[in-house]
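Problem 12. The chain below contains 224 residues. Write out its predicted structure in token notation.
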Amino acid sequence: MMGYFSGIFGASPIKPLQRHMKTVMECTHELVPLFQASHRDDLDMMATAQGRVYQLEREADDLKKELRLQLPGTLFLPMNRRDLLELLRVQDQIANKAKDIAGLALGREMRLPASIQDEFDTFLTRCLDAVDMALTAVNELDELVVTGFRGVQVDLVHDLLRQLDAIENDTDQMQVRLRASLRQLERDLPPVDVMFLYKIIEWTGDLADHAQRVGSRLQLMLAS
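Solution.
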């Protein structure tokens, strides 16, 4: 496929890696209209949003497979092949988790209790902030390669990764508070529904956790 691997050695995997992460980000952001529809008990719109999540997850999966197939034929890589594949794997986990969330929410026809909907929406938004920051950091790989992973560009990426860590820490604290809010409602809800609500909260937090792991992989690459 033209445009994927170009340059003097025809071996740069950076652009497809960035394209994969951008697709992952787009996939996660479809959870916003999904839960907006859930709050309204609009199953048709939930199904539409779930379909978009699934489509983008498949696109990310296709990009992952294509990049993996291209790598063995390259002669020169700007980074360790194992590090690149591990970064790709962690990026892909974010899209997989978004698919899990969408599937559970629609499959159970879930509706969060009205009293915690705003709190959940704020939590989801902050988790998506972590995904966005991970994409921003990955998008700096071009310049890192040009500068040989040295100089001012490294400082910039370190700053982005510190911001990502701070966002992920925010989501941890928000998750604790959201679980506490749900705990106050448990006696008024069917036990099975409560179990799945906790699962949705946990998996939403996983989006930020996986995004932070993208940052951790980048940190290791900077240190190597």
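Discussion. Confidence is low (pLDDT under 50) at residues 1-10. Students who got a different answer should revisit the alignment rule from Section 12.3.
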